[in-house]
Design a protein that fits this description.
By secondary structure, the protein is mainly alpha-helical. It has one domain (about 35-420): Ammonium transporter AmtB like domains (Ammonium transporter fold). Helix content is about 65%, strand content about 5%. It is built from 16 helices and four strands. It has a two-stranded antiparallel sheet with strand order 1-2. It has a two-stranded antiparallel ribbon with strand order 3-4. Strand 3 (about 125) and strand 4 (about 130) form a beta hairpin. The chain starts with 5 loop residues before the first helix and ends in a 12-residue tail after the last helix.
């Protein structure tokens, strides 16, 4: 058995200390306030939370099918491991940074809900007025999980697993939690400006897209970036899981079992359908073959673009949002591949970054009563300003986090490990059957 490295001893020691801290925490969840809890809202939010969690395994199949056969397991694990890492981090401090008592509209007080202290079974008047605060915290956890997982597509096939773990933790604390606070906390400065982001167009998709852009730039090109996807059925399966889970992502963001949730459910489906068909028809129009992978990417781009708008637009507008996002992201993928040297492995920025931007802009155009088409300019202008702030903060902050991570441990695997494939070099596993030598 190999001798454990010092960094793993340190990490394990930290985990043990944290276990003892939370084990002896005296804070107990308050009793269930049955007279103020809406059972329908509570039931729906439990279901929606499960839906959103299902998206991360879906993403692992979606990404895992796109990479080369020697990197399938490592790519899928980079998504899957976030279920564990971010759950513990969110419990310890992430939820408090995102939704704790506001400090100047910038960040939550880390002590407000530290280790879920005071996060119990009673509703919260501002965050979850009709269902337990603990359920709201768990619902929001699923968004925090999938965001760093989305980023992994940009540096797939060359990132060192330990460096990714460090980056993921720092990103969740210093990028994701502040963005969630700005946008969704009642005192967050973007929310007070009137910026509309129903379910995470900026918090999740723009942040992942710009962090992916920084990651692709920092890690550089792969030694061989001309590859064939390992498993198209995995991509189809992952897309189906994502589409299914996205109903919880968007409709759950109504935070109630009501008409708004139904509207978000419907606009989510129509935007994705529109984007999928637009993507494959556009491919055919410019002389490319209609492909399963193109259909899947188009569907996901539609889901991304409708996310900020899902509860603010009607069905016809959602169809247009999917249509517009599919064409713009399709062109962005093409020009990224043909006109730049950027190696964003799975096109995270053109799909999630650009898709999120399109969705945020069109939200400000179509949002009922306050959109540009209703003659209102304030929301539109604040959205443009928010895009600059979120994009600059996420790209610059992520760039700095990559640099800090690189000082702690090497970001990229060695050329030999990259040629071997990350499945074997990082995890000693493979999707190919292992041959057992006869005794």
């Amino acid at each position: 058995m190999s001798k454990p490295k010092t960094r793993w001893i340190v990490i394990f020691s930290i985990i043990v200390v944290v276990q003892f801290i939370v084990l002896f925490d005296s804070g107990q969840p308050p009793a269930d306030a049955a007279d103020t809890i809406d059972k329908a809202d509570t039931a729906w939010m439990i279901v929606a939370s499960a839906f959103v969690l299902f998206m991360t395994p879906g993403l692992s199949f979606f990404y895992g099918g796109m990479v080369t056969a020697k990197n399938v397991i490592s790519t899928m694990l980079q998504s899957f491991i976030a279920l564990g890492v971010i759950s513990l981090l969110w419990y310890l401090v992430g939820f408090s940074l995102a939704f704790g008592d506001s400090i100047g509209g910038i960040i939550g007080n880390p002590l407000t809900f530290f280790a879920f202290h005071n996060v119990g079974l009673n509703p919260h008047p501002a965050l979850s007025p009709t269902f337990p605060l603990l359920l709201f915290a768990l619902f929001q956890l699923k968004f925090a999980i999938i965001t760093p997982a989305l980023i992994t597509g940009s540096f797939a096939e060359r990132v060192k697993f330990t460096s990714y773990l460090i980056f993921m933790c720092l990103f969740a604390i210093f990028i994701y939690s502040p963005l969630a606070h700005w946008t969704w906390h009642p005192e967050g400065f973007l929310r007070k400006w009137g910026v509309l982001d129903f379910a995470g167009g900026s918090v999740v998709h723009m942040s992942a897209g710009f962090a992916a852009l920084a990651g692709a730039y920092i890690l550089g090109k792969r030694e061989n970036n001309n590859h064939q996807p390992a498993n198209i059925p995995f991509i189809l399966l992952g897309t189906g899981m994502l589409w299914f889970g996205w109903f919880g992502f968007n409709a759950g963001s109504a935070l109630a079992a009501n008409g708004l949730a139904v509207l978000a459910f419907a606009t989510t489906n129509m935007a994705s359908a529109s984007a999928m068909i637009t993507w494959v028809m556009f491919d055919a129009l410019v002389g490319r073959k209609i492909s399963a992978m193109g259909a899947c990417i188009g569907a996901v781009v539609g889901l991304v673009a409708i996310t900020p708008a899902a509860g603010f637009v009607n069905l016809g507008q959602s169809v247009f949002i999917g249509f517009a996002a599919a064409i713009i992201s399709n062109l962005a993928v093409y020009y990224k591949q043909k006109r730049t040297s950027l190696d964003d492995t799975l096109d995270v920025f053109p799909c999630h970054g650009i898709g999120g931007i399109v969705g945020m802009i069109l939200t400000a155009v179509f949002a009922k009563d306050v959109g540009l088409i209703y003659g209102q300019t304030q929301t539109f202008l604040y959205h443009l300003l928010a895009l600059v702030i979120v994009g600059g903060f996420t790209f610059g902050g992520s760039y700095l986090i990559y640099k800090i991570t690189g000082k702690i441990t090497r970001l990229r695997v060695s050329p030999e490990d990259e040629r071997m494939g990350l499945d074997m070099s990082q995890h000693s596993e493979t999707i190919h059957p292992m041959r057992v030598e006869a005794a």
